[in-house]
Structures are given as structure tokens and as C-alpha cells.
UniProtKB/TrEMBL annotation:
It comes from the Bacteria. Keywords: Oxidoreductase. SMART domains: PKS_KR. Pfam families: adh_short (PF00106). GO terms for molecular function: oxidoreductase activity. Belongs to the short-chain dehydrogenases/reductases (SDR) family. Its EC number is 1.-.-.-. Residues 7-191 form the Ketoreductase domain. The keyword Oxidoreductase applies. This is Putative oxidoreductase.
């Protein structure tokens, strides 16, 4: 392999789930990876996994609710490695209350800060370097909730992920002639820690038939490793076997209702 040798990648939400799996795949192909997340401990654990396997990675704890910290990830990366070739906007956050009838402004705003504002701020901060070299890949993990919104994903999350999807499409429209390519990954249910925040978290049997983090990470890897002449604009992926979500949806529709 090694097709990403001398490339530098940023992966947000890299301590667990899709981000962790994607960071390991990119590093295995030779990329130097900056791992971003709120908590240092899981990031350092992934750094160790990567370096033990012969790769190169550094941890950069940052709270992406704060737009300044999000933009600062690019500054850190440029100071550390001198360039940014691949940005994976993977960090996600969902509200505990899902129904538009009950969700409060603070939860709504937090969802948009992580899923939209952080994506915009970090992407914008990476663009000068990418544009100066005429090449850059920006991969954003959206969600099936962007295409099929509902109470299980939640009103704030569905709206925010639709915004991140359109942001990605807008990057292609505006900047592809300058060598910037943008990919939106649109997965349905994936067995990641974000599911633990649902009003009714899926049980072990349900999680067995879901996609796993490494499945979506392979989509990210594909978008990052294709020749620069080619861009995958969107990848939509979902579990092969459907499952009954009606009971979980009923609980989600009532979460946050006045007692």
C-alpha cells in the first residue's frame, strides 16, 4: 500500500467509532494523521495503536463545540506537519431529546455547533494551504438522517446533517476547479458510541446487524485514496438487513415531554 505517503490527514472524532477506524486505515496507507477529539485518553490510545503498527500520528484534544478550537486544529496541523492534504470531518453529536416538540434551544445549538459550525470553521481554516498547492480532499460524515429525517435521528441532528451534506456539495460546486474535492459519506445506522445517547439505545442483537465503524471507514479511505483526478461526491451506505425500529421510535417521540 503506501499510496498516502507524505500526505497529512486530520480526522475529527478520532477517539472512537468511525473516526478511530478511519484514522488507522489512513495511517496504514502512509498518511501522517492528526487525531482530534474532546478527550485525550482515547486519542492517545489510538496514537499508540497507529505507532505500534509503524504509522505516524499525533493527538490534538479539542472541543469542537467551540468554533475557535475547531479552526485551531488546522493551525496545529500546519505547525506540526507543514500541510493539510486530507480533512475528515467525522465528529458528530446528537441531542438527547429528539422531537421538535420538546427539544430546547441549548441542545439544538450544540448539535449545530458540532455538526455544522465546526465543519465550516475547520474546513475554512484548511483551505488556504490546500488552495495554495492546488489539491485537497475534504470528507464529511453526514447521515442517512439528512436524506430521511425522523424522530429516531432527531429533528436537530437531521437538520444539521442535511446542512453538512449541502456544505460538502457546495465545496465541490465552488472549488473543484481549483483542485479541491469534497465527499459526503451518508451512512444509516452504525454501531458507534453515539447510539448510547438515544432515548432507547439499541440492544446487542440490534447492533449485530448494523454496519460497523470499519465499514464506513473503508468508504472514507476510498474517497481519500482515489487518484486526485476523481472525486466521489456522495456515498450512501446502509445495513443489508433491515430491523424493526418502531418501539425505539415511540420512546424517542416522547423523550423530553413535560411530566
Amino acid at each position: 500500500m503506501g499510496c498516502l505517503k507524505n500526505k497529512v490527514a486530520i480526522v475529527t472524532g478520532a477517539g472512537t467509532g468511525i473516526g478511530r477506524a478511519a484514522a488507522k486505515l489512513l495511517a496504514a496507507d502512509g498518511a501522517k494523521v492528526v487525531l482530534v477529539g474532546r478527550r485525550a485518553e482515547p486519542l492517545n490510545s489510538v496514537v499508540k495503536e497507529i505507532t505500534d503498527a509503524g504509522g505516524e500520528a499525533v493527538a490534538h484534544p479539542a472541543d469542537l463545540v467551540d468554533g475557535e478550537q475547531a479552526a485551531g486544529v488546522a493551525e496545529f496541523t500546519l505547525k506540526t506537519f507543514g500541510q493539510v492534504d486530507i480533512l475528515v470531518n467525522n465528529a458528530g453529536f446528537s441531542s438527547k431529546v429528539r422531537s421538535v416538540k420538546y427539544v430546547q434551544p441549548d441542545e439544538w445549538e450544540a448539535v449545530f455547533k458540532v455538526n455544522v459550525e465546526a465543519v465550516y470553521r475547520l474546513t475554512q481554516a484548511c483551505l488556504p494551504d490546500m488552495l495554495s498547492r492546488g489539491e485537497g480532499t475534504i470528507i464529511t460524515t453526514s447521515s442517512m438522517a439528512a436524506l430521511k429525517p425522523g424522530v429516531l435521528g432527531g429533528s436537530p441532528y437531521s437538520a444539521a446533517k442535511a446542512a453538512s451534506l449541502n456544505f460538502s456539495n457546495g465545496l465541490n460546486s465552488e472549488l473543484r476547479a481549483s483542485g479541491i474535492r469534497a465527499t459526503a459519506i451518508i451512512p444509516a445506522e452504525v454501531n458507534t458510541p453515539i447510539l448510547d445517547g438515544r432515548p432507547a439505545p439499541p440492544d446487542d442483537e440490534a447492533r449485530k446487524i448494523m454496519m460497523q465503524p470499519e465499514d464506513v471507514a473503508r468508504c472514507i479511505h476510498l474517497a481519500a485514496t482515489l487518484p486526485v483526478r476523481t472525486v466521489i461526491e456522495e456515498i450512501v451506505v446502509s445495513p443489508t438487513i433491515p430491523r424493526d425500529m418502531s418501539a425505539e421510535m415511540e420512546i424517542a417521540s416522547k423523550a423530553g415531554a413535560p411530566s
